[in-house]
Specification:
It is built from three helices and no strands.
């Protein structure tokens, strides 16, 4: 194996290690955010079931957020759409 091939292989190995380390740091945060979203969805469902809020009000609020969120912010828009679709047709969980 020539020196250039060894250098390329080492560079690839270092890049892979850096990617793995970054993912290891990010995954706990991603999991925490997903858990928080689940808690919020459950709380909204409980409020609907207790007749404190109406499902259509939640859906309308999410539509409003979508209309006023930067179109490039796909994470926020996706979350708003998930909540909107869950409460748009019915107050019951899918």
């Amino acid at each position: 194996m020539n020196e250039q091939a060894i250098t390329d292989q080492l560079r690839k190995a270092l890049a892979q290690a850096a990617g793995d380390a970054a993912q290891a740091k990010v995954m706990p945060v991603v999991k925490m955010i997903a858990a928080q979203q689940l808690v919020v969805m459950d709380l909204m469902q409980m409020l609907v079931e207790a007749k404190v809020l109406h499902a259509d009000e939640i859906a309308a609020r999410m539509r409003h957020h979508m209309e006023h969120t930067d179109p490039r912010d796909m994470a926020a828009r996706t979350l708003f759409e998930q909540v909107r679709s869950r409460f748009a047709t019915t107050g019951k969980a899918p």
